[in-house]
Batch of 2 targets.
Target 1
Amino acid sequence: MPITEPNPAEYRSTLRAPEDFDAFWAATLAQAREFPLDARFTPVWRRAVEVHDVTFAGFGGQPVKAWLALPAGTDRPLPCVVEYPGYGGGRGLPHECLLYAAAGYAHLFMDVRGQGSGWRHGDTPDPAGGAPQHPGFMTRGVLDPHDHYYRRVITDAVRAVAAARAFPLVDPARVAVTGESQGGGLALAAGALVPDLAAVLPDVPFLCDHRRGAELATAGPYREVAAYLAVHREHERQVFRTLSYCDGVLFAARATAPALFSVAHMDASCPPSTVYAAYHRYAGPKRIEVYPFNGHEGGQAVQAAARLDFLDATFAP
Amino acid sequence: MPITEPNPAEYRSTLRAPEDFDAFWAATLAQAREFPLDARFTPVWRRAVEVHDVTFAGFGGQPVKAWLALPAGTDRPLPCVVEYPGYGGGRGLPHECLLYAAAGYAHLFMDVRGQGSGWRHGDTPDPAGGAPQHPGFMTRGVLDPHDHYYRRVITDAVRAVAAARAFPLVDPARVAVTGESQGGGLALAAGALVPDLAAVLPDVPFLCDHRRGAELATAGPYREVAAYLAVHREHERQVFRTLSYCDGVLFAARATAPALFSVAHMDASCPPSTVYAAYHRYAGPKRIEVYPFNGHEGGQAVQAAARLDFLDATFAP
Amino acid sequence: MPITEPNPAEYRSTLRAPEDFDAFWAATLAQAREFPLDARFTPVWRRAVEVHDVTFAGFGGQPVKAWLALPAGTDRPLPCVVEYPGYGGGRGLPHECLLYAAAGYAHLFMDVRGQGSGWRHGDTPDPAGGAPQHPGFMTRGVLDPHDHYYRRVITDAVRAVAAARAFPLVDPARVAVTGESQGGGLALAAGALVPDLAAVLPDVPFLCDHRRGAELATAGPYREVAAYLAVHREHERQVFRTLSYCDGVLFAARATAPALFSVAHMDASCPPSTVYAAYHRYAGPKRIEVYPFNGHEGGQAVQAAARLDFLDATFAP
Amino acid sequence: MPITEPNPAEYRSTLRAPEDFDAFWAATLAQAREFPLDARFTPVWRRAVEVHDVTFAGFGGQPVKAWLALPAGTDRPLPCVVEYPGYGGGRGLPHECLLYAAAGYAHLFMDVRGQGSGWRHGDTPDPAGGAPQHPGFMTRGVLDPHDHYYRRVITDAVRAVAAARAFPLVDPARVAVTGESQGGGLALAAGALVPDLAAVLPDVPFLCDHRRGAELATAGPYREVAAYLAVHREHERQVFRTLSYCDGVLFAARATAPALFSVAHMDASCPPSTVYAAYHRYAGPKRIEVYPFNGHEGGQAVQAAARLDFLDATFAP
Amino acid sequence: MPITEPNPAEYRSTLRAPEDFDAFWAATLAQAREFPLDARFTPVWRRAVEVHDVTFAGFGGQPVKAWLALPAGTDRPLPCVVEYPGYGGGRGLPHECLLYAAAGYAHLFMDVRGQGSGWRHGDTPDPAGGAPQHPGFMTRGVLDPHDHYYRRVITDAVRAVAAARAFPLVDPARVAVTGESQGGGLALAAGALVPDLAAVLPDVPFLCDHRRGAELATAGPYREVAAYLAVHREHERQVFRTLSYCDGVLFAARATAPALFSVAHMDASCPPSTVYAAYHRYAGPKRIEVYPFNGHEGGQAVQAAARLDFLDATFAP
Amino acid sequence: MPITEPNPAEYRSTLRAPEDFDAFWAATLAQAREFPLDARFTPVWRRAVEVHDVTFAGFGGQPVKAWLALPAGTDRPLPCVVEYPGYGGGRGLPHECLLYAAAGYAHLFMDVRGQGSGWRHGDTPDPAGGAPQHPGFMTRGVLDPHDHYYRRVITDAVRAVAAARAFPLVDPARVAVTGESQGGGLALAAGALVPDLAAVLPDVPFLCDHRRGAELATAGPYREVAAYLAVHREHERQVFRTLSYCDGVLFAARATAPALFSVAHMDASCPPSTVYAAYHRYAGPKRIEVYPFNGHEGGQAVQAAARLDFLDATFAP
């Protein structure tokens, strides 16, 4: 892929929040909180790193899975990184994501309901179905913000922070959220909806400025929106209205924790301008790592090192 | 595409029905019949052909949409063709499928729940969700035959015949089922589960010999099964057990109405041997049209002419 | 495909007509009229819709095939829709295009000489050959406007309207022309060259602003022009001069019947700006349906519904 | 491309000549001979190699172009290589093919009527047109052997040998024919239809065992046949009957001059078994160079060296 | 990708070792041992897992890099897993591969000279070829076994085991070798050339039965061999002779430690039969995990779990 | 490919030469001149054109191969065209490039070290990297201008002119340099570094404005730079600094011989603006042929004719 846009950093989104955006999420989260969190932790992998199988009550009180990993022999609360997977992936197997535990942190890696059959596997159902949709998850329930798939997932993402904090060896004052692509979009959502996070680290975030994404992306799940609208031509306005409720550009404007973004200028799945759209709106202290010759893989281990540095500084006593 | 298999007509499937196959479907259909059919017909397009919007209670009593088209001015019961869409498509708009009505028959064109956002659009929800799945519909609920997506769709397909028969201007003794690809697979299912059909006309049917399809197809929805198993490696046996409950090879062995099949030898989505697998097992009188240089589009208008000829002969008083 | 051009609606073509453009067509049509039209109609499909096989004398008096379909039992003249196929397709089989007859209109569907082996099949020869050409039809005789393939096809298109009017059950005062892609380009040509049409309905028209098409299209027959010029580098000026004689932008400026256009913003075969180029020049009352998330398939059944609405209003007594 | 067939050298074609095959060609050539050859030679490039523009009367007496190149200052008759272009290419510019002249031979490089706009450019029209065809040349007139495009081209190819012999500095007793792909197929045809050639050198020849080619090729012009039959399903038998009149397998069985073939085992356009099909039937002394890791490009300069060695031995006094 | 070969497990390779195969490697390793190993370990990442930067003298005494990771606070020798990267990748950053250390083992992850610019980055030059560069290694020096790139890499791989054993906290009696793709091929080589390994775990190994790989692979580095021979047609025999010196089929026949293989039946880069070719020849106790619906990614985390189980059993006191 | 950039001719590069650019090359060439040129010529193909195998001492005194071709029987010094191959190709076989000799000139066709396994084959090792190998040269030694692959190749290119002049039948006062793609980039380098050339003829030159090339090219070797930087993210500045030493934009500003450029507007490998970048900076009299509908193949034989015309005019006494 060549560069996908001439000057992506100059782009500013004109997206505006629907009037009831904040009320919508306040009501949604209030409704979720009516279900007890019921976070349960079962150790399943006990080696130099220990991994616990996690179940907590997400949207609708439905059980959501996660892993919680930390160094063996930990005896006092650790800072914790809550991570969300990229599109199509799940939490995988207990030994698949060991970076943060090996680095000395606690790490909660949330499953994404219904996903986890595209690459890294998942274990969490999405017990909801409904109106005709394009294959994939983007358009599941897309005609109404209340039915939309990401309403449920974002609620799960917020509850995942609570679940992490419920673990005895996690220091609830030092929790960061992160993720790549879809995971980055969810991190932005959590950044807006969880008031007291220590840091937000979205990498090449998806779910930002959906219309632009659907117009420009040549790969990845923004294409699902375009494909749906190529059939349901009459629903254009309605679809983008629904999607605005899960738009990272709007969440960014409501997040205040220190943030480390990353963007890749040859990204065909998440056009760089859509990432900058969220970055420019981000309301807290912020920095962005730029990868001019990378595609959607972004900074990978180099960015992981940057994240660890950022977290070390953030979590330092 | 070149020819996809050297001698597809010689292939014989070794697929065997699970012991409770017939009981499973008897119970499923009995359960569906507990809901009144409640078929409603509303005229929406009144021209030289008239099209009625149809709603009937499918699986779980859930409303399923269809169109019923017939020549304007019809005054006595007509033979009826019940048709099912190909994968990803829905019933479309009222004026999209006019062949059978223009040919002088009644035509019920069923929507497929949840689909209809991939190409021709649909209006029927699938109010069920669940375990992690690969994007698409093939693996929705694939770990248990009772949860599997096609249990619901096949039940709808059987009920669609009843809905057609409920229309005053349809002669219930002269109903045929047809469809291309997924529609052909559903026609085979209806052929097995509806005892008194006049004809079964499956074109390049999908949903036949799923393992072989998943191993050989280079395009189309059999790939979803392969993709799911590439992640959920542990579920191989379970997945193919579930899929056997909706396998056209097994339905074919239970169908007895006269049948007209078609097969395309350069078909990358439904490898021709999988079509022959069903054809060889078909228990009624049968014939197959062979298209040696076609891909999954099969015989198109040429096959449509063959179908009309076959129907004329079948329906002739 | 993402959107193919940032702001296609703002584009204005600078194409100018060759000085003898009108004389060229006047002479060409006069020459065609020297051959008696000799339109013959043979019923071949008699059901709820009746279809007649049509032969008429096109360019050079050569026989051109068509279907004429109308509701069975019609007893007084109907408005008629004359339709032209997309590139590579022919008139198909008698039962392939039943929309307009089912809707209560007469419908003449012209074959395109030489084509009809790429998808829907055709029956009309192009008894002309000649200078080296790129495979396909775009560059057949492209070095001289008099030899060019589309001179013959456009003449056929004009004559097709006369053939439709020659059918006893067609009301000659109420004839519209339509078509998708190439068919849309031919509708524009007929719109300019037939003075008394009731409506012109070009969908995602091809044959508009050829140089821009050849520069920007990433698929479809404009690529043939680019491919030809990649070999015959010395003929650039000559080729575009020839092509200007069949350019929809120039025809649009000469057409005055009410028009309904459509354009798709993700169209890789007919870049949307080339469609707007013709639309902006159109000399009659006009409207354009915009499909922002569609490719070259355009509006399909949704646009068909729009066309029927437009025709109903146009043809209403 | 990987190897395209497991053991291509073991394949034997079952193709049989139509009963009138020899009569057909005898009549065709007799008819061509009724037109005087009228070979004209005009020097156009006079340097260390001299190139003459050639025109001779081909099929129907229609003018066919060629280049005749030879070393400057030649003063006694030279052996001559008559070469035919690959599909889509023409004779190009005078300085494009200098190998044989630089090697000290005369070289006549025939244009292929109608082609020469796909890559190397051409100057010879095909003043025939007609029935609907798939873009390209394979199916031009394919419903009748008398109308088929290759009847004209093969006649031209035979006449090209006569044209070469008409040049004063060509030794008519020492003429070889060669070509790659389509050129190789034409060389086989000339080998069968010109009785006194010194050698036949077909490289990765096309036009051999058409049905197998249409079934197995994944690229190249055999696909045109498959594509045509995917639309004109009813013409399968007729098409392959016509194509048998230009099949290299049948020509090979009628050729007796010493032959040097070449074949490439990863050839996606001319499946190697189709080449072996012709090779095994070849009636004269023969040898084949095998390129196990090449695609349709075959042996290129390595094969050129082999051809020069073979010609040196053949033409040695 | 569909399955790439019908019955890959039945394939047996006919590859035979060159007469001096064992002498060649004995001499090569003896020559390498003339350079002191000079393994140096520098801690660079000290967290819950500790990672040491490793340098040791590989082929020609040239410095080769690696990481050695183990749980922080280890105080007695651990079993060790020596791992080799897949083609084009290097050792990456210190925190990129933490599985084995998190699982409680020592882990030496060798860099592959010259590689590490295709995906995971590398730091080891190939001083016969220069600093790390973008891929193209298969044919570096391929005309002579002594010059061939893999002679150097395999020597490095053998020396890497010695380097691991030189680390104070590694138990030299309990060392296993593993890797995916190229890493699996190198593990087989080490399995043959290091006499006292505890286990050999090659996953979807590359470098096995090179001719079959070059003939059948449709992706990956076997294609480089085919591409080279498509140009250097004259070197076919010589190239495969050279490659036989680094062929895993021959190494397998010389390895005796317990082995756990894996193979994927839809693998386009390492055709499954080439993996079975090595497996069938393997001289020690062996088992193979089969992934019928996976491509070259093979078993991923599922296979990692299988490897950990196998290692636990192997290393258990 | 459509046009790759809207207005490429308007682009101006901002690339600036590193301060020591001229000193770097002066030192490099001085160092090369310390080795005697030792040009040796062995006739290997004696026909109407004679071809000599050439060896001369290039960078580091290392032997570089070439062909020198000229008309047989030449008896007085001829003007000479020195040509450099495109990326991945070598000098080929003696009879592969006969144009200039057939046109009456001497022609030295240099091999490019290490290349010549991608298409036309080569015979010159790069002893910093080994015998010819499959592509991957752009980043060989890219971290230091002194180690970089193109420092060696450009030195060879300069020495090739000296080698041509050492041939008795070459007129040293009349030497031109040319080449396509990489060959065009090398011609620009020679144009700057050899003071007394008669002409410089770069066609669709590669190696111009590397950063823009790496950002915009969708094919070809500029992609190697982007791919390298996608892994070695930390070396961005260093890589482009190294590449600036072999940038045709900077060489163009130092060349004064009359020049004939060519550019293709649909070139995906060498974006046209990068060619114009060099053209606009070119310091001598210049002209550029524009091919608006060609890709990287550029003008081919048409441009060859233009080159011959230009050379005739240049070399005329």
Target 2
Amino acid sequence: DTSSKVFLPENSQDTGPILYGFAQITGSQQFGTPGNEGLIFGAHRIRLGVKGTAVPGVTYNFQYKWDGAWMSGGSLENANKIFPGVSGESGVQDAEINFGFIPEVQLKVGKFRVPVGMERTQFGGDDLWFIQRSMNQSLGADRSAGIMFHSPDVMNTGVYYSLGVFDNHSLDGNNAFTLFGNGNPTGIANVGVPFVKTTAQTSVGGVLTQGSGRYLFAGMVGYKLNPLLNIELSGARADALNAGPGLANSITAWNVGARGGMMGLKYMGEYSHVTSYQGVGGLNANDWYVALAANLHEMTLTPDWLDIEPAVRFERFNWNYNGQAQYLNNTTLGINYSVNPDNPYAARIQLNYVIPTQGAAFRTAYAEGNTGAVPTNGYIYNTLVLQFQAGF
Amino acid sequence: DTSSKVFLPENSQDTGPILYGFAQITGSQQFGTPGNEGLIFGAHRIRLGVKGTAVPGVTYNFQYKWDGAWMSGGSLENANKIFPGVSGESGVQDAEINFGFIPEVQLKVGKFRVPVGMERTQFGGDDLWFIQRSMNQSLGADRSAGIMFHSPDVMNTGVYYSLGVFDNHSLDGNNAFTLFGNGNPTGIANVGVPFVKTTAQTSVGGVLTQGSGRYLFAGMVGYKLNPLLNIELSGARADALNAGPGLANSITAWNVGARGGMMGLKYMGEYSHVTSYQGVGGLNANDWYVALAANLHEMTLTPDWLDIEPAVRFERFNWNYNGQAQYLNNTTLGINYSVNPDNPYAARIQLNYVIPTQGAAFRTAYAEGNTGAVPTNGYIYNTLVLQFQAGF
Amino acid sequence: DTSSKVFLPENSQDTGPILYGFAQITGSQQFGTPGNEGLIFGAHRIRLGVKGTAVPGVTYNFQYKWDGAWMSGGSLENANKIFPGVSGESGVQDAEINFGFIPEVQLKVGKFRVPVGMERTQFGGDDLWFIQRSMNQSLGADRSAGIMFHSPDVMNTGVYYSLGVFDNHSLDGNNAFTLFGNGNPTGIANVGVPFVKTTAQTSVGGVLTQGSGRYLFAGMVGYKLNPLLNIELSGARADALNAGPGLANSITAWNVGARGGMMGLKYMGEYSHVTSYQGVGGLNANDWYVALAANLHEMTLTPDWLDIEPAVRFERFNWNYNGQAQYLNNTTLGINYSVNPDNPYAARIQLNYVIPTQGAAFRTAYAEGNTGAVPTNGYIYNTLVLQFQAGF
């Protein structure tokens, strides 16, 4: 009787919980920086998740993370006091419950991705074309807490949509909807905080009982014509609780994307625009990129066991720094290698080389400690990254 | 051979480890507060656990939590600097090992619930009648580290008991045995800390090697006569390491509870009393509540597929504030809906509306920042909470 | 169809992920200390891991920890403000990916044990002979991030080796390669930090993009002649980023160990030497120990169901304190009891009594707050520890 040796989900009567996860180990180095240079080893993403069907019609997905080899103490924690950000992050990545009784009007509740941005919503951390997402992510939203109506394919037409309302910020960091007064030049933070600290009671035993009356609204509509073309339009708007001089009272972001492919050749492009960035009002930052990838294995240009995929991305980030238009271009050259073509994301090695151009103003801003000026995934020095991935 | 595709516990020869977990997503709003008002989304409890039989006679249960959509950084962490408590909590919820060789005298070691309080010890976070436990919890103890002798049913008589000794505090927060000088008016904290910082060495490589010689003792005895009646008496006492003027040198809590039900109708009531509260000595706080629930599905009053359960709870918390008797009443109206009656806690939606009365003094105390006066689960404004739950 | 009730790994085509874990609950007390004394309960190690084969030739092992009953808040967190260290530690313990295509030259990447020290690398937290590892650990390295070539048995000769390069420190704490200027008398910390905070950009979206050009190199070679003899030599060297007066510019550690056994009788011994300790240069600390254990069950001296193992360890730690040679001896008497001899680590109880001698200087140093002088696992007062373990 081997059945006693397997994991028995306690209550599930239908589809058992599926455990999934992966880790990404990196070695990276920058070139041409003003300081010491050298290879540094690290862990990019480390994830563990459980998903399944609770009862017919109700599915769940809970994902936890220990990105950056997170520990609550130790060397990284201490190093973080010197250089904030190196200690990684742990916590709940996704906690979503989906009610799919009506396929065309499904309801999702919890913490999950705000429906803005093609790359952000269509690709997970373990199946990205490049090691890092595009700078485009800095201008959209990441995960937040809320509810969303959605359908992946309305009556088999190829049309899909999402329409959600969330607390007025992004729970996950490093984007336009994160605590968006934080790190701005005036030093006034927290304009995007969804909580109000008044004489009212706002938290009772773990339940946040009082909001600010401000929200983040987001919507997306897309169309999958055929494998060659998938277009998508999305947008989000959040109102700040309050804003200091020069800070944004609200932030609006929108994104248009297209992607497709055939026989191993793939393309993807996005354009994003935000009214405000890093809490500063009226900056109208925008970003566009185009990416191409050619899976030589799918194109049957390699031996059967060799799954190699060269990829290239050109991206341009536009911002207004002290009244002057500023640019940062990142060209990323990449090669993706899957150890087993039949299971490409279970064991994968990715090599990226990023070449920034026109980044002088960003380097200056960064040197002045004005780190908010640099988009999250924007490189300002030539950088080589090698990433090993294993998952299950 | 599909057996290689399932989760194989490494060492277990008997009952395989069982993975369990759930998440609760909330949307809530308060009415009549002095500040902004609005709906706020959040995650109440997020849990993952493993339990099973290590070897015959020895069972284990390890549960981890990420309540409040906890993350080590991000928006919540930053918001927490403004309003403490919003960032949730992560960590080990339970880590218990049970030696059950003698059914009448079982030994449990680890971190687990101190045996005080009927609702606290008989109901888990995913099968509560209401979204929040009663205020009664504030006057008892939560989980702590220690050892406990217990039996769930002594010689089939219906009598059960627990008798334990723990470090002199509750590891989990928000109750009478938590760091109980913390937040009191005099500002002297930590009277309940089980550790002493002397010139002695108190920690060696992860093992806490020196205690203070003060403990928390707790005991419970109960009787299950039949489905109609389960009565229970429990109590706990802890000695503080040291106490400032006005603070408690010790704290004693006791609880009496009764519950039962038949054909879908259920009742439960508890009375609790503590000598000290929030570290302040001699306050003699007490609390009582009665709760009723009627499962219309079990009563066969609804169609077979509809599992609806109205519930109501009336509770009164009594405290002594600056020499004057103070009261807080909370009336909770609730409706519980299980998506699938055969698996009621796998997918559940709960709606609660809480109406506080006689809470003026608490609102005043809260406005003065004297938050310790408000019991953990006590509402001081009308509050609506909707909670979605999925588990496995 | 029961297959839907088991945990299905998402992508694995070969060996399914194996979930493993354990918890260790302790009760301990010290004797002869200058302050309060008493039993204290705690959780030593709490672990959860997943390991398996991603694709043929590529294996992974991810382990998470909540040692010390870690929680992000609560009593322990507050107590930690008074006595640092009591709140435990959580995070990623191991995150390793192994490429084993060539058995003699396997490549491991991620966060894992630096190959220094016999006990450190050959024994896990759940199969140690004593509750704590030897003081020897303080003079070696723990886990770090890097890459390593290795083979467990070169061409069936019994010879094994490891050769790795890591960031220039140990990610896990409490050893010679941890942030090694921290806690030293001069107060200058962080000489071992692998990161540089210059005007260069060092972190992009979770990838640490710039190192300091300093590394930790480590190597090990061993030989398993037969069950009676396994010898091993290992060493590591790391360069500091910068060092204040009296602090080490580099640190070198080496270790030699031997172990073996027959029919239940086991021995193990190690000698370690470091040039610097706790960041202070030129101290030449060293340590040696010998340990013996006799498994009476394997020796068939006990009834078939009784698995008892007495064990003893004598250890001597030598250090230079303010120019004077100082010693700390720890004699550990232990008894290990496995509930089920067929599955000895699934449920185990260990009792240790540690007798320190010649520790007067360490007690003085500790009283002066000079805690760096005391090796991590060194006891300076008589200590009794009882530990319960359950695993799967």
